[in-house]
Write a structure and sequence with these properties.
The chain is mainly α. The chain has 20 helices and no strands. Helix 12 runs antiparallel to helix 13. The longest helix is centred in the middle third of the chain and has 51 residues.
């Protein structure tokens, strides 16, 4: 080759980066072996680093954790809005253009449907239904969504079929170009004409799209083999080769920079997909100067290793979170299993335990998923315990209903007997019997709620009628008044001696019974009327104060147990902080309320009506101060943790 021919080729090639062969195992035909043996070889193809082949790119171990990320955010849309957007979107038949948008719409729609079904299932279970009996009925919106999504699916199927057909056509076209390359290698045309035809074949090759995946490797092997043979044929000199290697180096440096930018990408999935793309581009770029080959490859490989490490750590963190969720769910299962071992024998206790179960269920729903292989197992354990609890509750209330019906019949008999004594004139005997009936009434348990008020009013009316007749009979009789005084004092002593129980309803029933008995006792001597009434009122108020104190102690103890339970929670620090803020805000609000009430109480004038208002304000102030003490005790418990 003379100097003029060399300069001519330099002018033709210099603006372009020459195509290069990739380092793959080449399968050659007999004709190609002849070409290889007869033409001098020019060292253009560099050796493939084995690390590139072995580099971790397609790790499928975290497939279940892969995120679906798009540039579309429909998280705030409702079902109807999502359907309307989907129906408009699928009118575009370009499935490649709309696939990410459709995927985001579908993901959000299915999320909403799942949340609605979970709520339906929860309500169905809370209403006493069995899981296996639950059936979800698709609403019109779900059917409408499926119809719109089927349009996209049909278009996608057509697109894929057309794409596969086109790939076959592309394969035929590229095989035809390979045949033309073979002919070009054996051509006796001038160098310029041959190179022009070579460039034209390359351009045509690049313009042709994808081919079937099973043919890609063999096709590229043969193409790069023939390209190399062409370079051998035209004997590209060192100057042109160095220019090509330099441009390849620049391309790989740019690819390294783009890969290093992925270290700052927040989305691990997006970074990994781009990394795969960059590796494909790296394979397409030809060799670089020998002295830079190891350096540039190490740079690219090191960045790849870092991204892969970030990805492994990302999914390792997800696995840790899933394990933490599983551990928390195990604790919840143990909690509900403890409840099953409790002996629950009252309506109040069942209500409290039901609230506890519902709280555990809410806590369960607030947790994320466990590992897929464990998630169904732990849910079956929790669901089984919850079903057993509500079955036990159902059986209890079934038995309770029978007992209440029996109590109703017993109280009905007491009403009949009390009504038979209304007109009795045997005052002592009838009074003793009425009191005996009242004692028996208190011993009998509750009746069905729909009969409770009616049966009580009937019994009370009979008792009141008798005592009214008796009061009228003995009205003005001093001896009767003295007896009434004795009975009221005796009642006051019994009120003072009453021991407050843990069950609030039981305490309230006792106080109501004391009040009814007080009202049933007739007049007392006038000189004792106010004093005995004041003593009675103070005794009843003292009972209410004891109840309040007892309830505060129970509330404080329960709160301490709750705070102790926080220690095992991974997010205990954040929960304690939030709880402290809530308590502090409540205390400040109550103190402001107390200040306002104390300020307003000074405006009341000295009148009977004002005294009533003042007394009401003082009750409110005392109640608020008591609440402040309880909250301060809870805050102290919280600060001790």
């Amino acid at each position: 080759m003379n100097a003029n021919e060399r300069n001519e080729i330099v002018k033709l090639i210099q603006p372009n980066i020459l195509p290069n062969a990739v380092e793959l195992e080449v399968k050659v035909t007999e004709d190609e072996k002849v070409i290889e043996e007869t033409l001098p070889r020019v060292e253009v193809v560099e050796k493939l680093d084995e690390d590139l082949v072995n580099l971790e790119l397609n790790n499928d171990e975290d497939e279940d954790n892969e995120e679906v990320e798009t540039d579309y955010d429909f998280s705030e849309y409702n079902k109807l809005q999502l359907i309307e957007v989907l129906e408009e979107t699928v009118q575009d038949t370009d499935v490649v253009k709309i696939k990410d948008k459709v995927a985001s719409i579908k993901s959000n729609f299915l999320r909403i449907c799942k949340e609605e079904r979970d709520k339906e299932m929860e309500q169905f279970i809370l209403d006493g239904g069995e899981k296996e009996n639950y059936e979800h009925v698709e609403d019109p919106l779900e059917l409408r969504f499926k119809a719109a999504f089927n349009i996209f699916r049909d278009n996608k199927l057509k697109y894929n079929e057309a794409l596969e057909e086109q790939k076959v056509v592309n394969l035929q076209q590229k095989n035809a170009i390979l045949e033309e390359l073979k002919q070009l290698i054996n051509s006796e045309e001038t160098l310029k004409k041959t190179y022009d035809e070579f460039r034209e074949l390359q351009d045509r090759w690049k313009e042709i799209g994808q081919v079937p995946a099973t043919e890609i490797t063999n096709l590229w092997n043969n193409y790069h083999f023939l390209v190399e043979k062409f370079y051998d044929k035209v004997k590209i000199n060192r100057e042109l080769r160095d220019l090509d290697l330099k441009k390849n180096l620049e391309a790989k440096i740019e690819l390294c920079e783009k890969t290093e930018e992925l270290l700052l990408e927040k989305s691990v999935t997006k970074a990994f997909k781009l990394l795969q793309k960059y590796h494909d581009e790296w394979k397409e770029i030809g060799p670089v100067p020998q002295e830079k080959k190891d350096e540039i490859w190490e740079r690219f490989k090191n960045t790849t290793d870092k991204i892969n490490q970030i990805r492994r750590e990302h999914y390792s963190k997800i696995q840790e979170e899933q394990q933490a969720n599983y551990d928390a769910k195990v604790v919840i299962c143990e909690k509900i299993e403890e409840l099953l071992n409790d002996n629950i024998n009252s309506i109040g206790a069942w209500q409290k335990k039901s609230n506890d179960v519902n709280d555990l269920f809410k806590l369960w729903k607030s947790l994320g998923p466990a590992q897929k292989k464990l998630n169904d197992e732990i849910w079956a354990r929790f669901k089984g315990s919850m079903d057993l609890f509500f079955n036990n509750k159902k059986e209890f209330f079934s038995r309770l209903k029978e007992q209440q019906l029996e109590n109703y019949n017993l109280k009905l008999q007491l009403c009949v007997e009390a009504e038979s004594l209304v007109d009795s004139k045997e005052w002592k005997k009838a009074t003793d019997r009425i009191k005996k009936l009242q004692e028996e009434w208190k011993k009998i348990g509750p009746v069905p709620k729909r009969h409770s008020d009616k049966i009580w009013k009937r019994f009370r009316s009979a008792c009141d009628a008798f005592f009214t007749n008796k009061s009228e009979h003995f009205s003005g009789i001093k001896g009767v008044e003295e007896e009434n005084l004795r009975l009221k004092k005796e009642l006051i002593e019994r009120i003072k001696a009453y021991e407050i129980q843990k069950d609030r309803a039981e305490n309230m029933n006792a106080i109501k019974a004391f009040q009814r008995e007080w009202m049933a006792i007739g007049y007392v001597p006038m000189k004792y009327k106010d004093s005995v009434q004041d003593e009675y009122r103070k005794s009843v108020d003292a009972l209410f104060d004891k109840m309040k104190f007892n309830e505060n102690e129970i509330s404080t103890a329960e709160y301490r147990n709750m705070v102790e339970g926080m220690k095992e929670d991974p997010e205990s620090r954040d929960k304690v902080r939030k709880e402290r803020n809530i308590l502090t805000n409540k205390i400040n609000k109550l103190r402001e309320e107390i200040s306002v009430l104390e300020n307003n109480i000074g405006f009341f004038s000295n009148s009977k009506q004002s005294e009533i208002m003042r007394a009401e304000y003082e009750k409110k102030i005392n109640r608020a101060k008591n609440d402040v003490k309880v909250l301060e005790t809870k805050l102290k418990i919280l600060n001790e943790q």
